[in-house]
From TrEMBL:
PROSITE patterns: OMPR_PHOB (PS51755), RESPONSE_REGULATORY (PS50110). The modification 4-aspartylphosphate is found at D53. Pfam families: Response_reg (PF00072), Trans_reg_C (PF00486). This is Response regulator transcription factor. InterPro entries: CheY-like_superfamily, OmpR/PhoB-type_DNA-bd, RppA, Sig_transdc_resp-reg_C-effctor, Sig_transdc_resp-reg_receiver, WalR-like, WH-like_DNA-bd_sf. Residues 126-229 form the OmpR/PhoB-type domain. Residues 2-118 form the Response regulatory domain.
């Protein structure tokens, strides 16, 4: 799950990003509205949710919401602001925000509101994702493999391994390129490392192999990878 965070307060932005990362979200954090709009227009990345601070340099959070809705983009948006009057809340919701959180707030409430937005979203993510003999458990950050006899084995995954396997399971039997994986699973601002995808693939495959799923992800040399599901 990928979130665009737009917050110009360094301490708050850093705290939000750390919290979200700990809960398996991939976060692109920018500090002004102009950069945020550039990220939203970038066809390489697909966001699950967005968090906009209202008062930011460049394009305001309110204007970002308006632009999204003018472009028929249904991305769920949580608005953060110190503005707490009824008129301000109405203005934010009318601009296209899906929810409104007044500063200061606790991280537990932020996470709860994000979960609520996900449930209301057309892209709502269930607690489990099953493809072939693999089941991802979103609540516990592991995958369960099932063999022909019905036996189950839990495989503990790191956040990045979980995100990588999830990406493949959402695109079964499809060829996905290294560039597609890098653009979707690493932050836009991350330093490019030529072998980062291949290195992560080795770690994931090693864990899958220990549960009898050693050949489930195929390497297509010069093209990319494919999760083969019968």
């Amino acid at each position: 799950m990928r979130i665009l965070l737009v917050e110009d307060e360094e301490d708050l932005g850093g705290a939000i990003k750390r919290t979200l990362t700990q809960h398996k979200y991939l976060v692109d954090w920018v500090v002004d509205g102009d950069d945020a709009w550039a990220y939203l227009e970038n066809s390489w990345t697909q966001y699950t949710l967005a968090i906009f601070d209202w008062m930011i340099p460049g394009i305001s959070g309110l204007e970002l919401c308006k632009r999204l809705r003018q472009h028929k983009n249904p991305l769920p948006v949580l608005m953060l602001t110190a503005k707490d009057s009824m008129e301000d809340k109405v203005a934010g919701l009318d601009a296209g925000a899906d929810d409104y959180l007044v500063k200061p707030f606790g991280m537990a409430e932020l996470l709860a509101r994000l979960r609520a937005l996900q449930r209301r979203s057309p892209q709502f993510q269930p607690q489990e994702l099953t493809v072939g003999k693999l089941t991802l458990d979103y609540g516990n950050n592991f995958v369960v493999s099932h063999d022909a006899e019905g036996n189950k084995q839990e495989i503990s995954l790191t956040n990045k391994e979980f995100q990588l396997l999830e990406y493949f399971m959402k695109h079964p039997n499809q060829i996905v390129t290294t560039e597609q994986i890098r653009n979707q699973l690493w932050e836009v601002s991350a330093e490019p490392v030529s072998n980062v995808v291949a290195a992560q693939m080795r770690l994931l495959r090693r864990k899958l192999a220990h549960s009898g799923c050693d050949n489930i992800i195929e390497t297509l040399h010069g093209t990319g990878y494919r999760l083969n599901v019968v």
